[in-house]
Amino acid sequence: MTTYDPKRRTERTSDEVVLFDMDGVILDGRGTEAAVHARALDDVLEERDLEVDDDLRGPLATYEYDDAFRAACGRIGVDPAEFFHAREERSAKRTVSRLAAGVRTLCPDVDALSDIAERATVGLVSNNYHPTVEFVVDHFRLTEFGYVRGRDLGPEGFERRKPDPYYLNETLDALDASGGLYVGDRATDVVAAERAGLEGVFLRREHNASLDLGVEPTAEIGSLHELADLLAPAGIADGERTR
């Protein structure tokens, strides 16, 4: 059921958009599994004819570009930024292969997109790799999205992940929009939305049913179909909205 805080709702304008996170919102599942990164590391090591001690495999296969990763790169004599980019490139390729094989599917309420797209311009902005996001849109024929953006591969893209609003701001510029909604399933989505001047809509599903969000979204919904309550035409008073 939709919960809605009218005090946090701003007046709607004609150049607003509805943006969506991907993993857990459009695509079922929380994201790329750790095993994918581990196998991607094997790919890079094999290509470079490198062998590493077992104690270095964990830091080198981690999703994070952190001090432990950089220190491990120093021990095997490779440039951390370049090695991280190469491993992420292999992670993205392996992720695409898994998606093509049907390992993950769309969330069952994604059919709501067609109705939402008739009311507003829609876009997709994810912390997942940009090649992965592009593949999901093409593979599942998600033609409703006017703009899609995943993060760039490598350290720079890693640092620009939400809650940094970088990619949300880029999307707003691309769509010539000044405001709207961002629908996500994590606290970082709500924070990024606020930093980008958007209204954060928290989507509570089975995988985050017990999550204590810790931040206050504009609205909380249990299904993408409930977004209709937040997309009523301008001029309808808050008291007339369906809660």
What class would the helix/strand composition place it in? alpha/beta
Give the CATH class of the largest domain. Answer: Alpha Beta
- Largest sheet, if any? 7 strands, mixed
Strand content range: 15-25%
Amount of helix: 25-40%
Summarize this entry quickly.
This protein has 243 residues and is of the alpha/beta class. It contains nine helices and seven strands; from the N terminus they run ββαααααβαβααβαββ. It folds into two domains: 3-29 and 105-240, 3-Layer(aba) Sandwich (Rossmann fold); 34-100.
What does this protein structure show overall?
With 243 residues, the protein is an alpha/beta fold. It has 2 domains: 3-29 and 105-240, Rossmann fold; 34-100. Helices cover 38% and strands 15% of the residues. It has helices at residues 34-47, 54-61, 67-76, 80-100, 113-119, 130-139, 155-159, 166-174, 187-195, and strands spanning 3-4, 16-20, 121-129, 145-151, 179-184, 199-203, 219-221. Strands 1-7-6-5-2-3-4 form a 7-stranded mixed beta sheet, with helices on both faces. Helix 1 (34-47) packs across helix 4, helix 2 crosses helix 3 (67-76) and helix 4 (80-100) packs parallel to helix 6. It is elongated, with a radius of gyration of 19 Å. Residues 4-14 and 234-243 have low confidence and may be disordered.
